[in-house]
Structure formats: C-alpha cells, structure tokens
Specification:
- This protein is mainly alpha-helical and 293 residues long.
- The protein has two domains: 1-26, no CATH class; 37-292, no CATH class.
- It has 13 helices and two strands; from the N terminus they run ββααααααααααααα.
- β1 (3-7) and β2 form a beta hairpin.
- The chain starts with a strand and ends with a helix.
Length: 293
Amino acid sequence: MPSVNVVNGKQIVVQDLGTGERMLRFLAKPFLQMVHHRDLIQAILRREVAERFKGSIAGWVWAIVAPLLAIAVYTLAFSGKLELPDRYIVTADKQLSYALFILSGIVVFNFWAEMAFRAPMLLHEYVHFIKQTIFPSDMLAVISTLRATLYTVISVAVLLIFQLISVGSLPWTVLLMPLIFIPFIAFLVGMSWFLSAIGAFTRDTGYLMINIVPLFMFATPVFYHQSMFGPPWDLVIYLNALTGYVDVMRDILLVGKLPNPYVYAWTLFTSVFTFYFGYWFFDRYRNVIVDVI
C-alpha cells in the first residue's frame, strides 16, 4: 500500500514497490529518460556535430584521412614482425590482409578511446547548463557517444570500401554489424556515465585516462591476435572487454562467419553490466555532482 508523507507542507505519495517492480523500473529508467529528452538530445547532438571540425578547411575529410594514415603507418611498422592466423589472410598479399586486420581493430579501439578521453571532463564542458538550469546531465553521455558513433560510421565505411577493393567482395555477415555495435554503444554509454561521475569529483580521472588509453592499444589485440599467447593468457586477455568486441568485429567482417557464441555472450554481458552499473553509479551521485563540479 502506498504511504503519504508531508514535505514542506505538501503531500507526497510514496509507493511501496516490490523488488521485481523496482528492478523493472530501474532497467527501463535510462531508456525512458532518452525518449523523454529526445528533442534535447537531437538539438545538442546537431550542435556538437556541426562544431566538431568548425574552422577546419578540410572538415569531415579528416574523418576519412585519419584511419587511412593510421593504417599506412601501423602496417609498415608491424606487418613484417607478426604472423596472422590463416583465417585472417583474405587476400593474396599478406601485407594487405594485415592492413585489413589492423583497421578492423583500430575502428573499435578508436571508438572506445574517444569516449575514454572525453568522458572524465564531460560534465565540466556543460557546467554552465548543469548549474544554472534544470538540465538532464545523464543525457550528456548519450549525446557524446552518439557523436562519436557518427565519426565511427565513417571509419567503418572506409574499412568496407577498402575491403571491397582489396578482396573484391564483402561477406554476408557484414549485415550483422549492428549486433556488435549496438552492444558496444551501450558499453560506451555506461562507461561514460561512470567516468563522467568520477571526473566530476576529481580531474585526476582525466589525467589517468590520458596515460592509460595509449597502453590499452597494446593490451588490446589491435596489432596481433590473442592466439599468439599460450594458455591461459589467450583467455585471460578477454578480461579486457575490448578484446571480445574486436574479435567479433573481425569474425563478421573479415572471416565472414558467425562469432564464437561464448565470446559474443561475453560481449553482451560486459555491455549490459557496464551500461546499468554506469547508470546506477551516476544516478546515485547525480545531486552531489551539481555541487562539486
């Protein structure tokens, strides 16, 4: 039965919800917030996209040039030193296969790295809105992730065109790419909620990520395949959640096969857990954040 409390002379009905109903409300809350604030999300997203390359002559051309430059440099640096499993050699030229192998990993890593760099200072960027208006600060993680998604879509398009030119065809499994990117986006939103909340309390979080992210490029199988490690390290590396996403990406894009069900289940688990843990953590300290940033 609901109870009635009196706060500042006003009656407030407090519902006595069961554990199951409270859980369902928690699971639905972030999505209901997104729907409720969809117009605000669209407005700020349009502004952020417009300002991304503001003042640049080349503009969004850099979104195409950047992955091509990266693939050229990394391929020259690593292709002669590392061996690929046979299933990833999809062209007659092994170096070209290695270039595709690297680019598929870089697309995933750069998506994560952009959010990892920005999230700790995200609330500080919009501090004037948060302090002076009734602003849904939890939607900033969603907006910033969607902006990074647009940039990543361009990189994916470059990857697909590069593979089409190199191999001559694309596997049918490319149609399954949403099955990896939707969970990955949820993972990044949850990570952004957590890092932005921590970053509101201390700017050290931003400095920490500046030092950690470059190390993760080598702790993630971007330039190598995890099979080069003997057991049990070839499995331990999956504790780095990015490993699963990179692995699934390469299976559906390069190899043209369905991903390992255990690896895919792991990516789904990390996605759901990070999404809801991040939201729970942010929501828990939402009111305190306004006072500390």
